[in-house]
Each structure stands twice: as C-alpha cells, then as structure tokens.
C-alpha cells in the first residue's frame, strides 16, 4: 500500500474532481452560473494569495503578461463550462465531452506553435470523434446546447493547457495558479454583475455546496494532486486522472437519474478508449522497443 500511495491519492483526487461536478450542479439550482464560478474561484484564489505574494512581487512585466494571457483563456474555459452545467441534463455525458480537451491540446499546439503531434494522436482523435458522433446521434444527430457549450469549453481548455505549458516554465507555479484563479473570479464576477440576476436570500444549503466546491473540489483536491503526482509514476498518474468522467457519470446516474442509452455507453466507451490509448503511448512504445530487441537477440542466436 505504501508503494502505491501516490496512485491511491490520485484515485481520491479523481473522485474529488468528479464530486466537484456534483457540488456545482446542486449550487447552480439557486445561484447564477457566472456568479457561482466567480465566488468559487475568488475564494480559492484568496486562499492562495498570502502564500503567493512573495512570488508575485518578483514577477517581471513579461511574466505577468504571460500569466494574464493564460488566465484569460482559463477564465473563458470555466465560463463556458459553468454555462454548459446550467443547461445540461446529462452531467456524465458532458464530463466525457470536456475530457476531449486532452486530445484537442496536441492539435491546438500544432496549429499555434507548430509542435507536430505524435503518430498515436492521429489514431486516437478519429476514435474520440466517433464517440462524440454517437453522443450526438442519441439526440437526433445534433448536440444539445449544454453539450455544445461543453465542447467549446473543451476546445478553450485545450488552448489554455497549451498556453500554460508554454509559459509556465518561466513562471513559478503558485503565482501562476493564483493569478488564474483570481482572473476567473474577477472575469465571471464582472459578467454576473452586468448580466445576471441573483435570487436573495441564498439558503445555507446552497452556500454549503459552494463551500464544498471551494474547499474540497478545488483547494484540497489541488493539494492532494500535487502530493500524489510527487509519489507516483507519470504514466500511472495520467491514467488514473482519465477516470474523472467515469466517476462523474456514475454519480450522475446514481444521484441525478441520468439515463444511459446504448449510443451514450458506446460513445463514452470510445472516448475513454481514445484517452487511455493516448495516455498509454509512452509505455506502449517502450514495450514495443523491448519486444523488438528481444526478437533481434533471438534472431542472432
């Protein structure tokens, strides 16, 4: 058990990430979408701010500009995601669509920075596209408004990930994370003040779901993720984190009554297969090299 403590921690992290979808869904029954995400990420950002202040003071103008660029992309990603959450009736299905950002990121990186994707990507992307087609065919060959917003969120999340990967090498992680969280809170908060209506007073139960989103699904989750990744192999960590949409679907089915049709099950299965294949490609390549070396030695003998 001690040997696999990192993997066990990351398994808990994937469950906490899935629970964040559930907490958000319950909170959105009362709170406006942008207002909720603003409160959630402003609170999380303010929790990190005292610890990040020394790093923030040392940031150069160029570093600050890069951090703000990443923060804007992250803000748009969360805005689209929470709008999708407010419209969707199939939270688990949406989680699988959002997980496509993992496969869209290499494509975005290729288009923006000319980083050529690996060969496995060209096999996995059509496979995931087939899964998305099946999810759409279950509702008359078109995506619902919620799923359309989730797909846009996935594309923007991929862009945010690529930008973060490009700029994070020169910016301390804590200061970059704090800027991203605060920018989401400010961006969505401004939108909420201008265009949304708050129903007052807000019940204690709703604030409880908000608190759970901030403390459990955001702060505690990111802390555990950092610890888990430190004590686990990168391949194992990547595979475990792929399980988030699976837990989200199970929670949605058991607690929210989401119905799984054969098209949805097959579509989610294809997307999950594509994600696993893409995440496993370094290990598969290593095993293929070992197999080739073994065959060469046998041939010489």
TrEMBL record:
Domain EamA: residue ranges: 6-135, 145-276
Pfam families the UniProt entry points to: EamA
Coiled coil: none
Keyword line: Cell membrane, Membrane, Transmembrane, Transmembrane helix
Subcellular location: Cell membrane
Transmembrane spans: 34-52, 64-82, 94-113, 120-138, 144-163, 175-195, 207-224, 236-256, 262-280
Keyword DNA repair applies: no
InterPro entries per the UniProt record, alphabetical: Diverse_Substrate_Transporter, EamA_dom, EmrE-like
GO cellular component, one term: plasma membrane
Membrane topology field: Multi-pass membrane protein
Record keyword Transmembrane helix present: yes
PANTHER family: EAMA DOMAIN-CONTAINING PROTEIN, OS03G0707200 PROTEIN-RELATED
Name the UniProt record assigns to this protein: RhaT protein
Taxonomic source organism: Chelonobacter oris
């Amino acid at each position: 058990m001690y040997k696999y403590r990192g993997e066990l921690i990351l398994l808990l992290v994937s469950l906490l990430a899935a629970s964040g979808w559930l907490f958000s869904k319950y909170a959105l029954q009362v709170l406006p979408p942008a207002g909720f995400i603003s409160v959630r990420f402003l609170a999380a950002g303010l929790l990190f701010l005292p610890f990040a202040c020394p790093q923030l003071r040392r940031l150069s103008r160029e570093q600050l500009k890069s951090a703000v660029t990443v923060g804007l992309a992250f803000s748009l990603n969360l805005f689209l995601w929470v709008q999708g959450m407010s419209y969707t009736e199939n939270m688990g299905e949406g989680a699988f669509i959002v997980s496509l950002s993992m496969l869209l990121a290499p494509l975005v990186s290729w288009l923006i920075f000319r980083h050529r994707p690996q060969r496995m990507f060209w096999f996995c992307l059509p496979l995931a596209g087939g899964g998305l087609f099946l999810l759409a065919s279950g509702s008359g060959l078109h995506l619902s408004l919620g799923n359309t917003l989730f797909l846009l969120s996935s594309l923007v999340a991929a862009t945010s990930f690529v930008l973060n990967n490009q700029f994070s090498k020169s910016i301390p992680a804590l200061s970059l994370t704090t800027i991203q969280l605060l920018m989401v809170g400010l961006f969505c908060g401004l939108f909420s003040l201008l265009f949304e209506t708050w129903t007052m007073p807000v019940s204690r139960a709703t604030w409880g779901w908000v608190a759970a989103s901030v403390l459990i699904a955001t702060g505690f989750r990111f802390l555990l993720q950092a610890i888990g990744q430190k004590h686990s192999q990168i391949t194992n960590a990547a595979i475990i984190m792929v399980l988030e949409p699976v837990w989200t679907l199970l929670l949605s089915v058991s607690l929210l009554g989401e119905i799984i049709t054969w098209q949805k099950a097959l579509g989610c299965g294809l997307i999950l297969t594509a994600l696993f294949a893409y995440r496993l490609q370094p290990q598969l390549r290593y095993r293929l090299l070992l197999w080739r070396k073994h065959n060469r030695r046998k041939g010489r003998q």
